[in-house]
Amino acid sequence: MNTRMSKLLLKMQELKIDAMLIASKSNRRYMSGFTGSNAMLYISNTKQVIVTDFRYMEQVSKQCSDFEPVNQGSEGIIKTVLKIAKQEGAKYIGFESDHTNYTTFLELKSYDMFEFVPTHNLIEKFRQVKDEDEIKKLRQAEHIGDLAFSHIIPFMKEHYLKDLTENDIALELERFMREQGASATSFASIVATGMKSSLPHAEPGNDRFQKGDFVVMDFGCIYEGYCSDMTRTVVIGEPTKKHKEIYDIVLKAQLTALQVIKPGMLGREVDKAARDIISNAGFGEYFGHGLGHSTGLDIHENPRFSPLDQTMIQKGMIMTVEPGIYIPQFGGVRIEDLVVVTEDGIENLTHSSKELIVIA
Are 54 and 75 in contact (CB under 8 A)? Predict the structure, then answer.
């Protein structure tokens, strides 16, 4: 029995539940290895079953060697799973309350021979600390991001006077990352130029680059299921004093946070280290989001570096560190690295330059 399963069974014993239903895609993959879109895991002390439909039966047999595959047939997943529970004599059945819609909940409740026990972030808490295999995949995903940034800068310098748009950059980043082994982007790439760069989650469009523009590029890829994330900000034409001032404050905040991260700190303490730099420089009102978040099978996972997060940081956690300053009618700067927490600090998985690059 693997470590993940042992942890889950121990937690189930603690919660006094006989069986656990797992249907959310990322948690399902974490526990079983299944990458398809339709399945439910049934886990008890005596059974590990994956119920799916005809389309995935062969895939399940290849990916889920620790699980017994069961075809839902015409009965549907819920009815098939609960037949197994009835055969086992299970009474108290845990389900993922964070990932169960109301219709599914009502269907579960219609089986009144069972007591359904809501669980909150049960598997997600296991996922907060990554094992060596997960870190290896995240390291490679971020390496692909580094390669993409190294590629996109000369691409911009060569093409920006030829009506290059934000969409062109987003498309080229995705094309290049797929060429390097990524299966997809880990989120819709953010490429924002000029005043639009003051929008933290701007969507790329047909805006063209002009002298005096900041360009924020926030992008990542999926490698063997795991999500990378990085942000770099460049400037079109020679930067003004204001460009340099804002960029340097964000960079100082980011470097300060990177230096303080270590096991035992709280998420809000790391956030404060960076936020104080920006606030003391007079730009606190322009930094309105958390300093960072974890990534893994999902691009946004817990814990967070935010003013409210009291999670204790542990070795093996993967975190982004991404302070920013966003000034309406001027533009914005964000600098983001992906790091893994070590015994006494961090390993930075992002190696792209953080000097202010001029596209001219």
Answer: no
Tell me how far apart the alpha carbons of residues 252 and 266 are, in angstroms, rounded to a whole number.
21
Both tokens of 239, joined, read: 């930067």
CATH number for the domain spanning 329: value is: 3.90.230.10
Q: CA 273, 277, 282 angle in degrees (round to 5)?
A: 145
**Torsion on CA atoms 238, 241, 243, 244, rounded to nearest 10:** 90
pLDDT of the residue at 161: 67
Q: Are residues 202 and 300 in the same domain?
A: yes
Chain segment 187-199, per-residue pLDDT in tens: 999 999 999 999 9
Angstrom distance (rounded) from CA 240 to CA 59 = 56
What's the pLDDT band for 124 if we cut at 50, 70, 90? very high
Using CA atoms, how far residue 22 sits from 38, 93, 113, 175, 282, in Å, is 11, 11, 20, 34, 47
How large is the average pLDDT for residues 299-327?
97
Give how many domains the chain has, as a whole number: 2
